[in-house]
Amino acid sequence: MSEHLAAEAARLDAADGLATVRDRFDLDDSTVYLDGNSLGALPRSVAPRLNEVIAHEWGRLRIRSWGESGWWTAPERVGDRIGRLIGAAPGQVVVGDSTSVNVFKAVVAAVRIAQQDATAAGTVRDEILVDATSFPTDGYIAESAARMTGCALRALPPGEIAEAAGPRTAVALVNHVDYRTGRLHDLPGITAAVHAAGARVVWDLCHSAGALPVGLDAHGVDLAVGCTYKYLNGGPGSPAYLYVARDLQPRFDSPLPGWNSHADPFGMDPAYRPAEGALRGRVGTPDILSLLALDAALNAWDGVPIEAVRAKSLALTDFFLRCVAAYVPAGRVVSVTPEAHPERGSQVSLRCSPELSGASGHTAEAVMAELIRRGVVGDFRHPDVLRFGFTPLYTSFADAEHAARILAEVLGADNPGAAHISAAPGTTGISATPAASDANDGSAAPEVADVSGTPSTSATPTAPAATAAGDGAGPPDEERTLLELPAVPPHESVRYGEHPDQVVDFYLPSDGAPQGQGPLVVLLHGGFWRQAYDRTHLTSCAAELARNGLVVALAEYRRVGGAGGWPQTGEDVAALVSAIRRHPLAQGRPLVLAGHSAGGHLALWAAAQPSTGQLRVVVIAPLADLALSDRLGLSGGAVADLLGGPERVAERLPEADPVRLLPLGHPVTIVHGTADPIVPLAVSEGYVAAARAAGEAAGTGGPEPELRVLDGVGHYAPVIPGTPAFRTLLTVLQG
């Protein structure tokens, strides 16, 4: 396998139209540098230019260089060069100050413009929306700007900003690419939505400029900021830039007016009069050495179209993930980078925790340190993310293959190239493909009846395979144990609709007859709602619950990648609950709606529907808060996939997110382990807190959710028969 992929890398490099651009950078062959999303490599043009600046322009011309060497106009001249790469016509970008300072200038100026418009219209705009997933400094600056302008600050996931923008919103500050996961956010869609609400938008382009087309002018962006030391290769601490759309420049009221942005900077007038155009974004004396180093670095872009860079970026990240899938031992890393090209920046982020990283139990920080020691330079983000940045100007396909092979060695592969990775559903380019065992241990598949009892034909559970793992890689011992359990055929199967996935399997107590009038448990499986993950992996769980005296209805539903998605998946769950209530086995029995992981989300959602009727809810490691799960990027953007794509998330969260449907009015018990690496305990804790607040606000006095925290338990143990966590679940279900 490794020879095959290495040969493929060589072919791809030979056909790469940007391959010769690598020669413009000072790189050594002993290191694979995949940290250009933190600090770009040194272009060869920089050192000679700085030598000239220092020796001649500063050393000989000295102060004359402000005019004779073009120092004074450099911020606008270099700004126009950057403008070409971010889709801005000349005269709209100025270079200077840090990203943080430019964020402050842009946000405050945008609020002032929006409030001027509001005053003219007789309305009030006193709200700033900020991307809750952005680099922390953006949030700090936005908070300060809010205090200065008398605004309230709301931090939201990027997918919710479009919907949240309203009549009081002044400005939204949004990150174009998530620095942790590499997720690319919808700049055109969010910009249009914010404008439709009458507000302004500021975009942070730190992780997109120089990696992909941005199109500021084409998409009507108001203001934007970005750094220059990542994909633009300007050097450590190189100055940032500020974009002000041409039609807003006469109204740009900087909160940091300086002599450099004065209409007559050398007139030393005590009264401030702003200059015309983009010069209004300047403050003080430019940092000439860093600015001219950046100017020289941009020579590396001569003749390079940004569209070619984007095409190579996607090809590189796709190929790297294929190599990781081929080389890294099963289950050791999980990609958190979106699979879809329109949602991916130019980096790959892999989650690597002690539970995942193999017998050594290394943390992601330790794994990255060892990679760097072996000559593969990426970086680490707390608590468990390995980041690999791909800079198409100098990163080769051979670099990508070599980095994946060394990662496999660090994570304990005896023979890199022979193993397959087991990754969370929906993660980029990674899948698990062990062979499945016999479907029913030689037993015949039962007939399937509709609710009236008429036999019909439908798919029945098959043996657990890796694709039935539920919600992705958890602690390896738990996941492996779950997957190795034999599939157990049901006592009876019934349809609740015409689609093959609209089927419910009934598991009865061991003698084949329901005992007493105990509860009927409707059990919903997980798998991040994806077609590849069916109910098979919970057949042993359902059968063991039945052996302990419960009647269990293990339900299937339409899923993403098949006929499902939203609202079809939710509609199926509501329909199956209604169908089960009409079944003879349900008569006289209390109903318990239970679900694991994504199934937990569906159980909580269904319980909130008026048609569901009275029941009790028991959920295990549930995706109880879709907005938070989307912000965390769980399973590579599974929430967005369920809801129809990133552009539909904000629109559909109010109807699909259990947190938005509180108070519930039914008893709820949540079982969640502290060591769950797939759905963090914080998701359940957030739901409980929201439920408590919603109940208090409504004055209902209804039951608060009970959260049973299982110390040291991961994602799967509660649904694995024989574990202490399973016994806890059984006790809860028995009531």
UniProtKB/TrEMBL annotation:
Stretches assigned to the BD-FAE-like domain: 505-685
Region (Disordered): 432-480
UniProt xrefs under Pfam families: BD-FAE, KYNU_C
Reaction catalysed by this enzyme: L-kynurenine + H2O = anthranilate + L-alanine + H(+); 3-hydroxy-L-kynurenine + H2O = 3-hydroxyanthranilate + L-alanine + H(+)
Sequence positions that bind pyridoxal 5'-phosphate: 99-100, 135-138, 204, 207, 229, 259, 285
InterPro entries: AB_hydrolase_fold, BD-FAE-like_dom, Kynureninase, PyrdxlP-dep_Trfase, PyrdxlP-dep_Trfase_major, PyrdxlP-dep_Trfase_small
Cofactor or coenzyme needed: pyridoxal 5'-phosphate
Highest taxon of the lineage: Bacteria
Composition skew (Low complexity), residue ranges: 452-470
EC number: 3.7.1.3
Gene Ontology annotations for the cellular component aspect, listed alphabetically: cytoplasm
Keyword field: Hydrolase, Pyridine nucleotide biosynthesis, Pyridoxal phosphate
Pathway participation: Cofactor biosynthesis; NAD(+) biosynthesis; quinolinate from L-kynurenine: step 2/3; Amino-acid degradation; L-kynurenine degradation; L-alanine and anthranilate from L-kynurenine: step 1/1
Single GO MF descriptor: kynureninase activity
Modification N6-(pyridoxal phosphate)lysine, positions: 230
GO biological process, one term: NAD+ biosynthetic process
Transmembrane regions listed in the UniProt entry: none
UniProt KW Hydrolase keyword: yes
Function as written in the Swiss-Prot or TrEMBL entry: Catalyzes the cleavage of L-kynurenine (L-Kyn) and L-3-hydroxykynurenine (L-3OHKyn) into anthranilic acid (AA) and 3-hydroxyanthranilic acid (3-OHAA), respectively.
UniProt subunit comment: Homodimer.
Family to which this protein belongs: Belongs to the kynureninase family.
Name used for this protein in its record: Kynureninase
Gene behind the chain: kynU
